[in-house]
Each structure stands twice: as structure tokens, then as C-alpha cells.
Amino acid sequence: GSKKGYSLSAVKNLLEGASSIGTALEKTGKNWWINQYIFAYFKDASDDKELGETYFSGEIEYIICGKKSDSANKSTLKRRIVALREMMNLAYLLKDPVKSNEALLAAEILTPGPAALVTQKALLSAWALAESYNDYQLLIHGKRVPVVKSEQTFAVDIKSVIENQSEGYIDTGSDVGETYADYLRLFTYTMDSQVRMLRVMDL
Asked: Distance of CA 107 to CAs 53, 62, 126, Å?
């Protein structure tokens, strides 16, 4: 349950300027061996590695989150993935002139006048969050999600955000990006080293 095990700012700093999780992890050589061990000898929700019966079905999720049940670890990890993806998706939307303009046009219809700029920012935030929930669904269904989005890999449109459409998930069909296990690896690399080791010893 230690809160020392996770820092979104540490993850953000590691990803800064990186095009993929692989290139980001090249900065963390000292953590390489322990993480090789974790991903060889502990299972996660996407891969049981044929390890047989264990106390947790998501052992790596436990190492990352430290909760006492699979369901609690799963929900905590979901929040962390969504928060990370929201940060990355919002950065993409703010840099994309086409999508920023789409949000502004929608904002001018919803709240004409000076308030449109405030509404645009709210729409962009909601859009980034909707895309992040979609990203999580893609990851847990065995799809890939790139660290930095492109026009081809951004799935949710502004209409879906405004109309609050949330049935299922949207698959762009892209095979570019990182897997669920890659995102787990990112979190284990940025953990407090003592917390990580103690949770490995727990297992």
C-alpha cells in the first residue's frame, strides 16, 4: 500500500522526448536486470507465462500497485494508465491544429462569444480523457497504443465526445505502438527501487 511506489512525474520525465517506451527505458540501465527478472518469473493479466497457480493472477500488477486483491490492483493500474495516456493525448491535441480547430468550432456552437475559448479547453480535456479510456480498452484487448499519437492512431472523434458515446472501444487497426506489458514495464522501471524489491519478495 506504500504511496512511494508510483510517481506520474517520474513517468512523464522518462517519456519526455521519447518516441516509444523502448527508447525511454534506454535511460534506465541500472533497473534492467531486476525488470528482466520480474517479466520472466511473474505473470500479468495479459500473460500467465504458464506459471501455474499463484496468489495473484496479476503479479506484476501487484508489484506496481501493492493492493491486496487482483481487482484492486487492476482498478488502480487502470487509473494510472488512463492518467498517463490523458497527459500524452492532451499534448497531442494541443499541438494538432486540425483537432484544436475542430474543438474550437464545436465550442463556438455550444457557447458562442468569448466563452468559446474556455469551452474549447474543456472539450480538449474531455477528448483526451475519452481517448485515454479507449487506449486502456485497446491495451487490455491485446492491441497496441503508441506513446505519441498520430492522425492514424487517434481513435475518438469530437462528435463522440460531445454526444458522450462510450459503447465498446474503437480500434483503428494500427499495429504501431506498445503493448499492455510494455506499459507495465514503464511503471516498474519508474518505481521506487526499495518498494519494488519488497513487493517482489512478497510474491
From this structure: 53, 42, 12
Q: Around Cβ 154, how many Cβ atoms within 10 Å?
A: 21
pTM of the predicted model, to two decimals? 0.90
Cell 506513446 found at: 147
pLDDT digits (tens, 9 = 90+) for 18-65: 888 888 877 666 678 888 999 999 999 999 999 999 999 999 999 999
* Close Cβ partners of 58 (under 8 Å, ≥ 6 residues apart): 43, 44, 45, 70, 73, 74, 77
Q: Cell for 51?
A: 506459471
CA of residue 44 relative to chain centroid, distance:
16
Structural contact between residues 199 and 66, judged by C-beta atoms closer than 8 angstroms: yes
Distance between CA atoms of 146 and 165, rounded to whole angstroms?
23
| Location of C-alpha cell 517482489 | 200
